[in-house]
Amino acid sequence: MTPRSRTRAALGLINSLRTTPVLSDATHLLIREADTGALQRAGMARMVTGGLLLLAVVFATAGVELDTPMARKQISAAELTLVLFGASGWFGAWLASKRIAIAQLPVITAVTDALLVLGNLAYSHWGLGIPGSLFAAFPVSWVVPITMAAAAIHYQPRLQAFVAAIYVVGLTLIAFSGGFMSLEERQQDLAAIAGLFSMQTNMVRIVMVFAAGLILILVARQGRLMLERAVRETTLRANLTRYLPRELAPILTDQAFASLRQGRRIPVTVMFVDIRASTTFGETMEPAQLAVFITSFRRRVLRAASRHGGVIDKFTGDGALILFGVPGAQDGDARRALACGRTLLTLIERWNAKRGFTPPVRLGIGIHTGDVFCGVVGDESRLEFTVVGETVNIASRIEQATKATDCELLASQETIVAAGEEDLWTEVECDPLPGVTRRMVLMKPVG
Questions:
Q1: If we measure between CA atoms, which residue out of 43, 90, 58, 40 comes closest to residue 207?
Q2: pLDDT in tens, 403-431
């Protein structure tokens, strides 16, 4: 393998550390909430760890005669490092609580931790003249696994690789900057820092192991919480898809579902679609052919609804009920419904040209805008999402009126006005709609 191919393989390995490349909105929201909680807990963990280690250092040095300026400077540097470590934890937790720089905080805090640890070791080496090859003897080097464990709480492989690279490079520079030392030289240097292996210093190391254990417990707890949350969300979505339209189930929060369970009145544009003379196809086709025919029809309805943001409430044999404005009204619901009707007619026209149906497939499409009751009804054994009200009944009657007017697409004046397309539609003369007491003005596309 050539050096270039090895480099490409290494870059490919790093790139493979990416998590899921494409996330749904619901998953992105779940991960963002988990990141925010992880940042707050990681900040608190840094504060607690910094406080414990600072107390351990103070306790270990209490009553100990520091007869050399180097020892006093090193103790002061360690105390300052731990104070800054705790302060960075508090600041990170505060930023996370304010939802500030959530995406950048994991990198910022991890780099800050590494700079504090490596800075302390660099000060001991270049500032105090202690050989870098002895860095492992200093208790502060034991903070490295603690900070790496703190970075692991974010579950970001790239971040973990980045932090590991910082420590590997930094410790390598410190360890090998002094060159090779003979055995006698190492013995002399170790004798000069024999205090680093005292009972008090070893106690500080034990506290560090304890702190690392606390951080790893927090990492495991964070992973468990995310797993339980993901399982609950997945179970909820699986249950919702049994009776909710497939477009709604993935985007509904617990609060939105609770609102649907109670029911509410919202403005919606309703579209009814039906195949004209469908009995003819049922009588002339074999059962297998009819199944393929209905499936192909529904596929085109799905394509048109998806293109214009419609929610298919239900399919009714050779027809469909499509809603625009569920679960919440948006600007342009009426306009998107009209565009969906036109798109569906175009798709059916192409379908006729492709398959050469005799007689050709014709549709009846009725569209109306108004308030409806929208909600999930029924008991736990049989829940059903439904929309009911005068608006739904009128839309159904308009669809039926397409037979008498010999027009495949009709819409109420309310829908045309809401869409702002008065110039593109013309009024149609027709009999009063059955079961509708008020006068309805129906319109069809110009030309």
A1: 58
A2: 988 899 999 999 999 999 999 999 998 88
- The Cα 282–Cα 265 span in angstroms is 38
* 124 phi, psi to nearest 5 deg: -60, -35
Phi first, then psi, for residue 426 (nearest 5°) are: -130, 150
Q: What is the DSSP string of 326-368?
A: -SS--TTHHHHHHHHHHHHHHHHHHHHHHH--SSPP-EEEEEE
Cα angle at 41 between 36 and 46, to 5 degrees? 125
pLDDT for the residue numbered 313: 84
User: Would you state the structure tokens that stand for residue 27, as one six-digit string?
Assistant: 């998953």
Rg (Cα) of the chain, in Å, rounded?
Answer: 35
Tokens of 261: 């369970």
Instruction: Calculate mean pLDDT across residues 197-207.
Output: 64
Q: Name the residue among 110, 133, 311, 317 with its Cα closest to residue 215.
A: 110
Contacts of 376 (CB under 8 A, 6+ apart): 243, 244, 257, 260, 261, 263, 383, 384, 385, 386
pTM equals: 0.51
Residues 31-89 have pLDDT tens digits of 677 778 778 877 887 888 778 877 877 777 675 555 556 666 767 777 788 788 888 88
Residue 361: CB atoms within 10 A of its CB come to 20
Maximal C-alpha separation, the chain: 110
* Interatomic CA distance for residues 207 and 212, integer angstroms: 9
Residue 250 CB partners (closer than 8 Å, separation 6+): 24, 25, 26, 237
Residue 217 to residue 230: CA distance in whole angstroms: 20
